[in-house]
Amino acid sequence: MADHNDLGRKAEDLAAEYLIKNGHRILMRNFRYQKAEIDIISEKDNLIVVTEVKARSTDFFILPQEAVTKGKIKSIVTAANHFMEEFNKNQEVRFDIISVLPDKNKNLTIEHIPDAFEAFDAN
């Protein structure tokens, strides 16, 4: 498997562990709707939290969270709307980003950005 796939999988596992440690209940991972995918859907404080996990081996060119484009936001929002309808959820939805980068010792570090974007950012 390619190194970037390994990094992505490790980043998603770390993000899920981080969310659980911070009081989230994981509802689903890698939820797919059409061509869109949501990395992690969790619940905390009666909120549905949709989390996009972005990992990079370096921040030399771009920070991981900067790779979440308007197009990506639009697909995440579309998938989130489908999830809410499919599972008959009526809570408020928050969109977070978890950025994962290696530090100088090559240990992966997490930056959690709650409420990173809103559904209307997709327009």
Automatic annotation (TrEMBL):
Pfam families noted in UniProt: UPF0102 (PF02021)
Signal peptide: none
GO molecular-function terms, A-Z: nucleic acid binding
HAMAP family found in the cross-reference section: UPF0102
Family recorded in the similarity comment: Belongs to the UPF0102 family.
Protein name per its UniProtKB record: UPF0102 protein CHRY9390_01436
Organism: Chryseobacterium aquaeductus
